[in-house]
Write the structure tokens for this entry.
Amino acid sequence: MQVGAGFVGSIPYPAHALTTRRPRPYHHLQRARVSEGPADTAMNDATDIAKTTRILRETLELEREATRRYAEHQSWAADPRLCAYWEGLRRNESDHRGQILAELAQLGAAGDWPAPAGEGPLGTGPTDGTAPPDPGDPRGFARALATLRSDVEFERAAVKKYADFAKALDDPRLKALMREFVRAETGHGRGLQRTIEQVTAADYPVVLFCPTCGWQLDFGPAPAEGARVHCPMCAMTFALAVRDGQFVLDRV
Ligand SMILES: [Fe+2]
Ligand SMILES: [Fe+2]
């Protein structure tokens, strides 16, 4: 038997039941009321809103850039698996963008935000995120791999930035949203890293869109340049070539 424990009638009760005190309701809120005058409070509120707006605005620009970046990669990727993954990322980033726009609207700071400086049409801007091919990468995937690596860097920078934003924000709901973004962008970084490992593996089959009809043509792992495949859908035959670090199919 513990010291301090006892019995109520024949029912035993534990020692802690004797000492448990009810918490005082709302005492934390009462303590939060510091002696600010109305003018101080208004100024603090304005500073908070300005800070929150600046953070959300910066987040919006990052999310717009991320959305545009992953759409751009799909525009030239010949591998349907890479297209599918980049599309998954694009949708996720586009959701983030929508969430931040809604938060800005709630703050009364919504507007037709101009595109970030230097942003051009898809695939043509200086910030399209496409890296030049690395000649050390497997033939045909050099452009994709260099781009995936630059995506990893992009996501790592976003994780760091959002972790800082989560600390800087005061509103618990916005802090939670920012932590959710940290979780998402961390997942992107891991997924991109996993994709790089898959693409560089010796047994990764070369599967490419048919340039005539869009069907998927499977050349198997490590095909030789010049390998031919017949598309069962459009009845065209193609020879495999590598140009600018990317597989291309020439109609035979
Ligand atoms: Fe995002
Ligand atoms: Fe085809």
Remarks:
- Residues 38 and 191 are 50 Å apart (CA to CA).
- Residues 38-76 form the longest helix (39 residues).
- The first strand starts at residue 6 and ends at 8.
- Residues 205-251 form a domain with the Rubrerythrin, domain 2 fold (CATH 2.20.28).
